[in-house]
Specification:
Elements lengths: L8 H17 L21 H11 L24 E2 L13 E2 L10 H9 L21 H12 L2
Antiparallel strand pairs: 1-2
Helix pairs in contact: 2-4, 3-4
């Protein structure tokens, strides 16, 4: 798994700024704009701060969980995906189901950092569909969120 162990906080911040700057430049980040991550490391984040961000700020479980007919989250399904709990009355390209985010299946740490710091860019480089928030987290907050979700 590719990740960020060994990067200093300053290097992560510079990489995050360089990556977010690609939107201003109208294109993708090139190798000259952001350093490549070490190949054999892991994201080092604070699990408790990640829990706070996931549960109290981003409130990920509100969409990425299964709900009963009364709208309550079904026990044991938090962060495990489910039917999209909200719909809009106008035509919209919203997903019918939300993906499981417990453990961040199928995401490397680098892909997860990109998702959380660059405005919801998915593994394949496309933007996640609404209503997924366009997060612009700091690299450290993203590392904390990843550390927490990997424990779920």
């Amino acid at each position: 798994m590719t990740s960020l162990r060994g990067w200093s906080r300053a290097a992560l911040c510079v990489a995050g700024i360089a990556m977010s700057g690609s939107a201003w430049l109208g294109g993708a980040v090139t190798a000259q704009q952001a350093p490549a991550a070490p190949a054999a490391a892991e994201v080092r984040g604070n699990v408790e701060h990640g829990r706070y961000l996931v549960e109290s700020v981003a409130m990920c479980g509100e969409c990425h969980s299964t709900r009963d007919p009364q709208g309550n989250i079904v026990a044991g399904t938090k962060f495990r995906g489910g039917a999209m709990p909200a719909r809009v009355p106008w035509p919209a390209d919203w997903p019918v189901m939300t993906p499981a985010i417990a453990g961040l299946p199928a995401y490397t740490d680098i892909q997860a950092v990109r998702l959380l710091t660059q405005g919801a860019i998915r593994r394949d480089g496309t933007r996640a569909r609404a209503p997924m928030p366009r997060f612009r987290m700091s690299p450290q907050d993203a590392a904390d969120v990843i550390a927490f979700l990997r424990t779920q």
